[in-house]
Amino acid sequence: MKIAIDGPAGAGKSTIARLLAQRLGLRYLDTGAMYRALTLAALRRGVSCADEEALLRVATSMDLEIVFDPETKGNLVRLDGQDVTALIREPEVNANVSLVSSHKKVRDFIVALQKEIARQGCIVMDGRDIGTVIMPDAQWKIFLQASVEERARRRQRELQRSGHAVDLQELAEQIRQRDHFDSTRAVSPLRKAEDAIEVDTTSLNVEQVVERVLSIIKGAGEDV
Ligand code: DC
After folding, report:
1. Could you give all domains of the chain from N- to C-terminal order, each with its CATH number?
2. What is the Cα–Cα distance from 75 to 18, expressed in whole angstroms?
3. Spatial separation of the C-alpha atoms in residues 143 and 204, rounded to whole Å
4. Which tops the pLDDT comparison, 211 or 220?
5. Could you identify the atom of ligand 1 that is nearest to the CA of residue 190?
6. How many Å lie between the centroid of ligand 1 and the Cα of residue 182?
7. Tens digit of pLDDT for each residue in 136-191?
8. Could you tell me the distance, in angstroms and rounded to a whole number, from the CA of residue 31 to the centre of ligand 1?
């Protein structure tokens, strides 16, 4: 079974995909974590996030490991031997990852890795292009949506937990910009696959979204 979870920033993809994988006993890959780890590696090496060739060199030389974390049941990300799972969610990475992920050569490299992981068998993957590019053959394609305001509140809570106080309006503006950038970029833009089912998570809690997606997968759900 292959399940693709796509959607914009803050729609709840990672949380939902991780819990779904847990409930269904499947592997899980947070594909955004790979672009985030590359962004962190580039920032650490002083490489410009606008320099496609230099980014590709970073991508091909960094030692990136994404493994199952038995504690969180999610992905543990190791970059050059160091656990960077929390560091890749820091504001500096947030501010640069969209640009890094927009370069064709960078995407070609990361997409090939992700397709190879998908080829190895049953999995839940979340990202922007899973249903359209990485696993167009997925049996289930879910596109999670939520209002900009709700997504900004979620991001604010996430950042507060890691000790960052960020203004809500500022976050909403960043999300609008990121949505625009991710959905208008030339290579693999964020878009709903034609055969994806859209789920609006604005007024649902995590458990309700998981239940809704499970009911869709079990055949009891309709387009929502
Ligand atoms: O889901 P996220 O916020 O961790 O993703 C970080 C960035 O990576 C986001 O700006 C878009 C990009 N991304 C992508 O282009 N394709 C993916 N499959 C996953 C993420």
Report:
1. 2-215 (3.40.50.300)
2. 8
3. 15
4. 211
5. 15
6. 8
7. 999 999 999 999 999 999 989 988 988 888 899 999 998 999 899 888 988 888 88
8. 7
